[in-house]
Known about the structure:
single chain, mainly alpha, 11 helices
Amino acid sequence: MAGSSLLALLDDITSLLDDVATLSKVAVQKTSGVVGDDLALNAEQVTGFAAERELPVVWAVTKGSFVNKAILVPAALLISAFVPRMIVPLLMIGGLYLCYEGFEKIAHKLLHAKEEAAHRAALRAAVVDSTVDLVALERDRIKGAIRTDFILSAEIVVIALGTMATAPIREQIVALTVIAIVITVLVYGLVAGIVKLDDLGLRLHRGKGLPRAFGALILRLAPYLMRTLSVVGTAAMFMVGGSILVHGVPAVEHVIIGAGDAVGRGLAGTVVRTLLDALAGVVAGGVTVGLLALVPKRRSPAH
């Protein structure tokens, strides 16, 4: 009896892990847009510090990210357990926010390029200015990065929860916890690698022969890597956010599925559906940005 009970327990654990792996795979696919943007945005926010402070800053933001997810994951699971009807509305809000953020990001780059360049230049100047309190500057940058992480983490948790809403609660607990840990380690591990790329390139460039050439190549490609991450992350935000919104509107989803099937049920159909989802995301983001622009902004009281 004891042996059969142990085998039954192992079978239950194996089944649970298998279900968790399936749930995690689907959730990671759905959250890829936010993860890509999270990676690009955080890599951008922690750059610009002195070389010896880059990794401590990344570690500080990583710890803040774990705290964020320690708050968000239980909150999401409580919603799933007690008010599951809120999952779909939250998912739609998360998808719309993704589209809004992607469109606003593009609009800001196009309409405020000079202000953005001036802001970056001011940050670089502050780092090398001996009269600036670097400790306070670093603390402010870390707090800002953690606040940004909280928003992106909330999107990741909500989208991931939406993919497993019908799963048993124990599978949701394990899968959501695994996703939160893995994504945090993955994102900030890559961020640490990215911010140290220039140091690696510089070190190799001081050598001779092949290492020197490889170091020069890294130094040339590092800025393009950041831009590529930003572009890919923004595109993924539209694709993922648009897909979520389309899935929430059956009439639009039916049209997009029909358009994909008309092209073919293979790769071509998938590409068409993905592009149409992204287009829906762009439209939704543009409309949201436009509507919010019409809302009068509060003016600070005169002093």
